[in-house]
Amino acid sequence: MADRPDPDVQQRGRRARPPTPGCGPHGGEGRDASRPWFAAWLAEPLTRPALALIAGATAVMVAAASGAAPLLHLDRALAEGLHRLALGHPSWTRANRILTDWVWDPWTVRLLIVGAVAVLWLRRRRTLALWVAGTCAAMSPTVPLPVRCGTVALTARSGFWLSSCGS
Hints:
Mean pLDDT: 75
């Protein structure tokens, strides 16, 4: 009687990676049914580092909002040091003003988004194009709040998330 190889073991002797959970908290076809979705989510390689970064960012935001003296001293020292550096290098300051006033200006980014929407529309990725345009409109402070809320509701109902799970 010949020994059959274990189906969970790959050719090189390492165990195969467990199936990843599907879209959303309820899993999908590739969901590992032997453990709950939360445990499977925690087993993903980037989950723990992401949670650590979120916890660190939350701690810094809470400290800043509560007016923690060491954080305020650090902020003031950095601001003063950068100001001295800017005064000592006027050409460097001028170059940064061009970058912030022209290259990363909100209207420049909006024009790039319009171009991306046009390309997506021409490539027949219309659901994604509508989602990008709707999200941009929903985040724009120049659009009145009721229009922003309606845009978010329409893009959420467009089925983008459901259609993107399978592909």
